[in-house]
Amino acid sequence: MMRRLVFLSTAVFWLVVLVLAFTTGNDGEPVRTDRPAVNADKLVTMAEVAHHASSEDCWMVIDARVYNLTAYLPDHPSKPSIILPWCGREASEAYKTKTKGRPHSEQADQALTHYAIGRVE
Amino acid sequence: MHPRHPLPHYRIHLIAATLVGTVVWWAFPQDISSWRSASIITGWIGCGLLLSSLFLMIREPWLATWLGGLEPMYLWHHRFGVGAYLALLVHPLALAADAWSESATLAWGALSPWQEDWPVWLGWASLLCMMAGLVVSLAPRVPYATWRKLHHLLTVSVIFGGAHLVVLGLDWPLVWAPLLAIFLLLWRILRADYGWAAKPYAVTHTQRLGTDMVEVSLRPLAKPVTGQPGQFALVAFLRGPHFQGCGEYHPYTISAIHSNGALSLGIKALGDCTRHLQSIETGVSARIQGPFGTFLEKPPTGPSLWVAGGIGITPFLAVLRNGALAQQVHLLYLHRNESDAAYADELSGLATRQPLLHLVMVDCANCLPDLQALLPAASELLRPECYLCGPDGLVNAAVTVLRERGVGLERIHFERFDFR
Fold first, then answer.
1. Min CA distance, A59 vs chain B (Å)?
2. Binning pLDDT at 50, 70 and 90, where does residue B3 land?
3. How far apart are CA A2 and CA B79, in angstroms?
4. Domain spanning A38-121: which CATH class is it, in words?
5. Does residue B20 share a domain with residue B166?
6. What is the CATH number of the domain that holds B253?
7. What's the whole-number mean pLDDT along residues B335-362?
8. If exposure means fewest CB atoms within 10 Å of the residue's CB, which of A88, B147, B163, B304 is most exposed?
9. How far apart are CA B251 and CA A84, in angstroms?
10. Where are the domains of chain A?
């Protein structure tokens, strides 16, 4: 019984993973439809960014671009205490040196672009 | 063994419910999507079940007594381990399902080791080790030595899983989960596998009992284990003047308990290690953990039926050697042939001296024992407690016949020695 359960569930798991891997090949760029379009070139001051420093209203500056990450915070894989202190601040170094000096993945870079709301003055 | 004490099984379930409930309660997500919540919850259910499974790996006599014996502990160790595996298979798939609503690329990105980093790599490493370890553990007919080595993949899986949690970042109440896992692993490895809980003994006497059976007597070199007839011990045989044991702990039924703390064990060649032990000599050092088991724990208050197959005679012999019977016993001893009939002469002598013992020995060299004919009729089975010890096939067949003759499960007692 247990043997059958383990073998069957393992087979189903790999089937799902393989289907996902092959489906991705036919899929285009991910499109976020849940956020309104914003002017990502709007100029924002650091003083303005500093006003958005909480979990309910979280802006960050990464490489001179301003991101509104409020909607993303619940999806961040780490515990909140790792990302929350960077709300309202310049966070480029932290973004590039997660887990002992490793930068975030390309996937994260790609996802980040969808939260851009402007540039730092 | 049929559960004579239902309470200890509730204790096992209670421990698992506490561990799973605590971690899920602490980590329960709020205000996030349902698939992401499902991923987090299944991850922590898997973690709680793994902790329960690890807890049941601990081999301490006091814990085994409290939880109803090593047999239910191993049974639930396996069940919780498989349950954890199923939950942990769902964990990454639910994460991908969460991203699927936006695009297949993001869904694959949540799983793909090539697009992620340490937390995902460690998660994959843990899951793959668990997958390989479980498949090997459950595969039929894997030699014990191979099984033993590959079973350690599950240990590696737990370590990777703990690292996965730590790298993701844990709030303080949940930090104890990976710490507890490491603590339980170390407890098992150091106390049981490395023998810190074992007592030192030395082999004082060996006696050939048949073609593939030997009885080994050991005296304690320090405080002895305090076993009862019918119990078993986990014993590792080490070095002697001209003999090197395999050093692994295996279960052996105690065939005699002496007043000075010395023990005798009946050992049948069932694998490489026990086959090598057939040539054991005096002076070999050994380490013993135990005692374990509740078989024949309480002397029957009425007549009883004992059914023994081959080396399964040893727990019954231990009781008979321990003193005169107080109640009537019908002992059915099945063996393959005369040279394999361990203790046959001694049993005949005991039957002569003990009027309450009715001994029937059956030689089944080239036949399956006809239990329908050998077991007492239904009218004679209205009262006796039935104790069975022997190969699985014999025990299962005997249980079937006894059940057909109206014996309730609460009066059928047996133990299996499959501690893989």
1. 19
2. very low
3. 8
4. alpha beta
5. yes
6. 2.40.30.10
7. 85
8. B147
9. 55
10. 38-121
**The domain that contains B394 carries what CATH number?**
3.40.50.80
Question: Which range scores top for mean pLDDT: A88-97, B183-192, B404-413?
Answer: B183-192
- The answer to whether position B58 is within a domain reads yes
Mean pLDDT within B34-59: 94
Structure letter (DSSP) for residue B239: B
**B254 pairs with which residues across the strands?**
B265
Going by C-alpha positions, the residue among B19, B25, B17 that lies closest to residue B41 is B25
Q: Is residue B74 part of a domain?
A: yes
CB B397 within 8 A of CB B373: no
Contacts of B245 (CB under 8 A, 6+ apart): B236, B237, B238, B239, B273, B276, B277, B280, B284, B286
Rg (CA), chain A: 19
Q: Which of residues 10-69 of A touch B (CB under 8 A)?
A: 10, 13, 16-17, 20-21, 23-24, 26-32
Beta bridge partners of B265: B216, B254
> Residues 70..109 of A with a Cβ closer than 8 Å to B: which?
74-75, 77-79, 81-82, 98-99, 102, 104-107
User: Which one of B105, B116, B418 makes the best mutation probe of the A interface by having the most chain A beta carbons within 10 Å?
Assistant: B105
- Predicted ipTM of the assembly: 0.81
Place of tokens 């990302």: A83
Name every residue whose Cβ is closer than 8 Å to that of residue A51 and which is 6 or more positions away in sequence: A88
Give the whole-angstrom CA distance, residue B100 versus residue B90: 15
Count how many domains chain B has.
Answer: 3
Tokens of B281: 């000599």
Tokens coding B128: 């793959």
Indicate if B149 and B244 belong to the same structural domain: no
Q: Tokens representing B120?
A: 């995902």
Q: Do both B17 and B109 map to the same domain?
A: yes
Same domain? B188 vs B206: no
CB spacing of B102 vs A24 below 8 angstroms: no
- Given strand B385-389, what is the order of strands in its sheet? B357-363, B329-335, B304-309, B385-389, B412-414
Q: Which domain holds residue B380?
A: 304-414
Q: Describe chain A by its helix, strand, coil percentages, rounded to 5.
A: 45, 20, 35
Q: Do residue B104 and residue A27 have CB atoms under 8 angstroms apart?
A: yes
Residue type, position B89, single letter: L
